[in-house]
TrEMBL record:
Pfam families reported for this sequence: TAL_FSA
Protein name: Fructose-6-phosphate aldolase
Main location: cytoplasm
Taxonomic lineage from the root: Bacteria, Bacillati, Chloroflexota, Chloroflexia, Chloroflexales
Cellular component per GO, a single term: cytoplasm
Matches recorded under InterPro entries: Aldolase_TIM, TAL/FSA, Transaldolase_3B/F6P_aldolase, Transaldolase_AS, TSA/FSA_arc/bac
Gene Ontology molecular function: any one: aldehyde-lyase activity
Keyword Cytoplasm on entry: yes
C-alpha cells in the first residue's frame, strides 16, 4: 500500500518526503485555504518539486462543464496533477469527459460502494472513501474499503485505485492495508504518530545506558 500525505503545507511535505516513504500528496480547498496567502497554482507546483508522484488538486465547480474546465486547466500545470472530483452525478459526467481526454481523476467524498462502482465505470483513476467521517456516524468506515476492494477485484476491467481517506490515527493505516487499499492518505501528525512507540523509546534509552555503563 502506498502512503500519500494529506496536506498543502510545504514544510510538512518537505519533512515527510525526506523520510523516503511518500508516493503522492492529496490536497483539497480546505487544506489550501489553511495555508494563509498561498496561491493554488504555485503551491501545486512547489509540491511537485518535492514529491515525484500523483498530486490531487480539487475542483470547486458543481457542474460538469465547470469541473472539466478546471480539470483541464489544473492538469496542464504538471504531469503529476490528478483532478479531484466529488462523488455526484455531475462529477461522473466530468470524470467521463476528463478520462476521454486522458486526464486522471480522483473521485472524492465517497461514502458508499455504489458511488465507487459508478466512479470506476466512469473512468476514475482513484476512488477516495472517507473512513474517518463514516466512523464519526457510528458505522465502521473500514467496511466500506473492504466492500469496494471486493467489488473492484471481481471485475478485471476495473483498474481504479482505492485510496483510504479521512485517516484519523495509525490504526486506520494498518486496517487500510489489511483491507486491500492501494493507497492511504494521511495527515502529517498521523504519520508522526505511526513511528512512535514507548517500547521503542525505552529500548533506545536502555541501549544507550548500557553502552555508557560499559566505559565506567
Amino acid at each position: 500500500m502506498q502512503i500519500y500525505l494529506d496536506t498543502a503545507n510545504l514544510d510538512e511535505i518537505r519533512e515527510a518526503a525526506s523520510w523516503g516513504i511518500l508516493s503522492g500528496v492529496t490536497t483539497n480547498p480546505s487544506l489550501i485555504a489553511r495555508e494563509k496567502g498561498a496561491d493554488f497554482k504555485t503551491t501545486i507546483a512547489e509540491i511537485a518539486n518535492l514529491v515525484d508522484g500523483p498530486i490531487s488538486a480539487e475542483t470547486i465547480s458543481l457542474d460538469a462543464p465547470g469541473m472539466v474546465q478546471e480539470g483541464v486547466e489544473y492538469a496542464a500545470w504538471h504531469p503529476n496533477v490528478i483532478i479531484k472530483i466529488p462523488s455526484t452525478i455531475e462529477g461522473l459526467k466530468a470524470v467521463s469527459e476528463l478520462s476521454r481526454q486522458n486526464i486522471r481523476t480522483n473521485v472524492t467524498l465517497c461514502f458508499n460502494p455504489t458511488q465507487a462502482l459508478l466512479a470506476a465505470r466512469a473512468g476514475a483513476f482513484i476512488i477516495s472513501p472517507f473512513v474517518g467521517r463514516i466512523d464519526d456516524t457510528g458505522v465502521d468506515g473500514m467496511q466500506l474499503i473492504r466492500e469496494i476492494v471486493t467489488i473492484y477485484r471481481q471485475d478485471p476491467e476495473i483498474t481504479t485505485k482505492v485510496l483510504s481517506a479521512s485517516i484519523r490515527h495509525p490504526r486506520h493505516i494498518v486496517d487500510s492495508a489489511i483491507a486491500g487499499a492501494d493507497i492511504a492518505t494521511c495527515p502529517f501528525k498521523v504519520l508522526q504518530l505511526s513511528m512512535k512507540h514507548p517500547l521503542t523509546d525505552r529500548g533506545i534509552e536502555q541501549f544507550l545506558a548500557d553502552w555508557r555503563s560499559r566505559s565506567e
